[in-house]
Design a protein that fits this description.
heterodimer, A: 225 residues, Rossmann fold, six-stranded mixed β-sheet, 32% helix, B: 289 residues, alpha+beta, Alpha-Beta Plaits, 10 helices, 4 strands, 8% strand
């Protein structure tokens, strides 16, 4: 599904990712772990097409991401759902409107949009909050809004960059349970995280990075060896 | 899309108002220059179609002498039309001209007015030569010709056209830059929002189409507003101008002509608005990836 083949990303002299090779199959749940600056976010951004690799190739869903032109990259981005650490919500739009943004790229009727958003709101438990604005929600609720927005178009791949970074342990666990539910429906999930307890509880694949290099790739790993 | 347009316009209402007023003022002036040009053209046409030389005849001239004179000037080949106006015809014209001023009609009889020969030349430049021929004729008392009026008007109209065109270019450039700057500011203000939309998978068209629509809206709305303003000014000045331009068939201005002006100015406004938004979008929406 996603293949990194000897991928290196440099920013000037700084090497953010060095010679990274791995393959993620359809329906896998993968944690990207490691300290800050290890290269987790770089991997996420390389998959979204925000960054181009300095060398190597990235292939996902039979598409070579590094070969997609600037004009066509949006078509690739529509196939993936992304949850950002800093939420990236529109503060002047309600929760409902925020979640419906990716649907507005397609020609859905307002009835269809209402139905699809309603379903994901129910999944993340935010039906009661749909008419509120982001400033009126707590951190966990904001993160769930981001999750709802990321999955509303039913993408094949879900990328999450530190989705529990600003949450308390209980809310973080609830959040990851939601991810688990989504994963069970067949969505491939790649989550960059610092959260040791979550990684240890879920005992799924862990790719550990350190200073841009993959230092560990375990099928049922823990945060630390 | 119209919902987004409305939101964008009301997001910074003072900026929207500033661009609308600025573009409206510019298009109002463009519209005014055009209307003055069209009016002047009509005045020139009027003078060109009028007899350009009038030979006033001495009293008691016989009709054979008049026919001979007519034949002589027509034989030059430079005369389009030569028409004899008798004393009675002259009185009729005089009465028609001053029908609203009975004081001027009192005591005036056909004897007071001279008979004349009205001449239209094929070419205004040969008017002086025709006038010289007429002056030499013994039956001609005096010759009045409008070479100066027409040529002055023609040269004035030429200058006005050049000045109007230069001003229109200058003003349209001002419109273009105003729309470009304001939309550029809008895009900068929405930079974060645009960035998020890109990350979520919005196409370039999805992001830029509301910007194009906003540019066209400013141009079109300002054009209609400035045209309305122009029309109101014309309606307000019409009675005064009708008095000044007595006899010249300009007023009332045909509504069809004004609708044509509306079409033209709307196209111009929309085009400038679209061009401004296109440049703003290509300049400020440029992204690395």
């Amino acid at each position: 599904m996603i293949t990194f083949d000897k991928v290196t990303k440099k920013f000037g002299e700084i090497v953010a990712l060095e010679n990274a090779s791995f393959k993620i199959d359809k329906g896998e749940f993968v944690f990207l772990t490691g300290p800050s600056g290890a290269g987790k976010t770089t991997i996420i951004r390389l998959i979204t097409g925000e960054y181009l690799p300095t060398s190597g190739t990235i292939e996902a869903v039979l598409t070579k991401i590094n070969e997609i032109s600037k004009r066509k990259i949006y078509l690739w981005r529509r196939k993936i759902g992304v949850i950002f650490q800093d939420y990236k919500l529109f503060n002047d739009r309600t929760i409902f409107e925020n979640i419906s943004v990716p649907l507005s790229f397609y020609k859905f009727t307002s009835g269809e949009i209402e139905e699809k958003v309603g379903k994901v709101l129910e999944l993340v438990g935010l039906q009661e909050r749909k008419n509120l604005f982001p400033a009126q929600l707590a951190g966990g609720e904001l993160q769930r809004t981001c999750l709802a927005r990321a999955i509303v178009t039913a993408p094949e791949i879900l990328l999450a960059d530190e989705p529990t970074g600003n949450l308390d342990p209980k809310t973080a666990r609830e959040m990851v349970k939601l991810f688990e539910e989504i994963n069970k429906k067949g969505t491939t999930i790649i989550m960059a995280t610092h959260n040791q307890s979550i990684v240890d509880i879920f005992k799924t694949r862990v790719i550990e990075l350190d200073r841009g290099k993959i230092v560990r790739d375990e099928k049922k790993g823990k945060y630390h060896v | 899309m119209f919902k987004i347009l409305k939101k964008n316009i009301f997001r910074s209402p003072y900026q929207s108002l500033a661009v609308i007023l600025n573009v409206s003022l510019a298009l109002f002036l463009v519209c005014t220059f055009f209307l003055i040009g069209a009016g002047s053209r009509a005045v020139l046409n009027f003078f060109e179609s009028r007899p350009q030389a009038i030979a006033y005849l001495k009293d008691g001239v016989k009709s054979q002498e008049i026919d001979l004179l007519k034949a002589r000037v027509e034989s030059t080949g430079k005369v389009k039309e030569a028409r004899y106006i008798s004393k009675d015809d002259a009185l009729k014209i005089y009465k028609d001209l001053f029908k609203d001023k009975p004081v001027l009609l009192e005591m005036v009889t056909a004897n007071f007015l001279p008979a004349s020969l009205e001449i239209s030349a094929n070419d205004i430049s040969s008017l002086r030569e025709i006038a010289e021929i007429l002056k030499k004729e013994p039956i001609v008392e005096d010759v009045d010709f409008q070479e100066d009026v027409v040529s002055t008007l023609s040269s004035w109209l030429g200058s006005l056209r050049k000045f109007g065109f230069a001003m229109a270019v200058f003003l349209l450039l001002n419109c273009l830059l105003t729309i470009l700057v304001i939309l550029g500011m809008r895009i900068s203000q929405r930079k974060e929002e645009i960035e998020i939309l890109r990350l979520l998978g919005a196409s370039s068209w999805y992001i830029s189409s509301p910007i194009y629509l906003e540019g066209v809206f400013y141009g079109l709305f300002s054009a209609i507003f400035s045209w309305g303003l122009c029309y109101l000014v014309i309606l307000y000045l019409a009675p005064f101008l009708s008095r000044v331009l007595t006899g010249i068939p300009i007023f009332p201005i045909s509504p069809i002509f004004m609708l044509e002006v509306l079409g033209g100015i709307s196209f111009l406004g929309s085009f400038v608005g679209f061009l401004g938004s296109l440049i703003a979008a290509s300049r400020f929406l440029r992204v690395s990836r």
